[in-house]
Write a structure and sequence with these properties.
GO terms for molecular function: thiazole synthase activity. It is built from 8 helices and 10 strands. The protein is of the alpha/beta class. Strand 3, helix 1 and strand 4 form a beta-alpha-beta unit. The longest helix has 21 residues.
């Protein structure tokens, strides 16, 4: 069995033990958010700057009061942005509110129905933000060529979707995710589409460095219990990857040789 305390991964020079990253939207209230995040064991918490108060609205509850930056690595994201200009402006606002914090999750969406990424706008925003000193963890589709280009641009992590955001469909194209993982020199984290614990385990068994999820936990009937399940699934999938699974076969074979035996 691997030692979870020693099996870490790094993003932009920051080292993490938990390979589960969680979002903070769609919960019933702040207390449920706090409990679910705590149960998940996550060290990285992503916050939609355009939808959540992190200090820009002085008269509203601030989510950083229940998820303090001295305990969690806050990952501002550009959820709800549909063009590069808006995404860039959102990242700059987050950096100002978080005292110069420059690690962000970039997502630029193509349309409101599918929430698929607009790759062209995403690449334009990434290029401008990298020049401005940001460290970009980038949400994209599961295209290995685009993933390679985003890494070459200087993104510190690439986050291909497993399925449409909020769909819970699981990993729809395992071969593409596997190809992205095999070719990458930066962390690859599945982002979007996870529905239950087995989906998270599969992502880890493919060799992903981590998984980011929100709806799979927040929309569960018992979000806190699901967060706990996801924590265990991530750990189990990672251990299975490190252990190296047996080859898949069409038929079982005898565990002992039969050559030379008399019948």
């Amino acid at each position: 069995m691997s030692n979870q305390n020693q099996d870490t991964f790094s993003v932009a020079g920051r080292q993490f033990h938990s390979r589960l990253l969680v979002g903070t939207g769609k919960y019933r209230d702040m207390e449920e958010t706090r409990q679910a995040v705590e149960a998940s064991g996550a060290e990285v918490v992503t916050i939609a700057v355009r939808r959540t108060n992190i200090g820009q609205n002085a008269d509203e509850p601030n989510i950083l009061e229940i998820l303090p930056p001295d305990r969690y690595t806050i990952l501002p994201n550009t959820a709800g942005c549909y063009d590069a200009k808006t995404a860039v402006r959102t990242c700059r606002l987050a950096r100002e509110l978080l005292d110069g914090h420059n690690l962000v999750k970039l997502e630029v969406l193509g349309d409101e129905k599918t929430l698929f990424p607009d790759v062209i706008q995403t690449m334009a925003a990434a290029e401008e933000l990298i020049k401005d000193g940001f460290e970009i963890m980038v949400y994209t589709n599961d295209d290995p060529i685009i993933a390679r280009e985003l890494e070459a641009m200087g993104c510190v992590a690439v986050m291909p979707l497993a399925g449409p955001i909020g769909s819970g469909l699981g990993i729809r194209n395992k071969l593409n995710i596997l190809t992205i993982v095999e070719n990458a020199k930066v962390p690859i984290l599945v982002d979007a589409g996870v529905g239950t614990a087995s989906d998270a385990a599969v992502a880890m068994e493919l060799g992903c460095d981590g998984v980011l999820m929100n709806t799979a936990i927040a929309a569960a009937q018992n979000p806190v219990l699901m967060a706990s399940a996801m924590r265990k699934a991530i750990e189990a999938g990672r251990e299975a990857f490190l252990a190296g699974r047996m080859p898949a076969k069409r038929y079982a074979s005898a565990s002992s040789p039969v050559d030379g035996l008399f019948f």
